[in-house]
Amino acid sequence: MHEPDHAAFDRSIDVQVSQLRHKLEGDPKGPHLSQTARNGSYIFATKATRK
After folding, report:
1. How far apart are CA 2 and CA 12, in angstroms?
2. What's this model's pTM, rounded to 2 decimal places?
3. Using one digit for the tens of pLDDT, what is the confidence trace for 3-51?
4. Is residue 32 within 8 Å of residue 46, measured between CB atoms?
5. Is residue 11 within a helix (H) or strand (E), and if so which, with residue range?
């Protein structure tokens, strides 16, 4: 049985994160809200502040 190719799915996540960075970050090349983790996943985090 042929296993599905996950490369296209993996790449689509990269594209989605890239689009989010362009919308949310002031400088998408040096993001502060989103970080790439060592295992290839993404972390979206920011400091919480009280008003």
Report:
1. 21
2. 0.58
3. 566 666 678 888 888 898 888 888 877 888 888 888 878 888 777 788 7
4. yes
5. helix 7-24
Q: Are 34 and 43 in contact (CB under 8 A)?
A: yes
Contact 39, 31 (CB under 8 A): no
What is the average pLDDT score of the chain?
Answer: 78
| Residue 22 DSSP one-character state | H
The candidate with the shortest Cα–Cα distance to 21, out of 8, 36, 7, 6, is 36
Contact by Cβ (8 Å): 31, 42: no
36 neighbors 20 (Cβ within 8 angstroms): no
- Residue 4 DSSP code: P
Largest distance between two CA atoms of the chain: 57
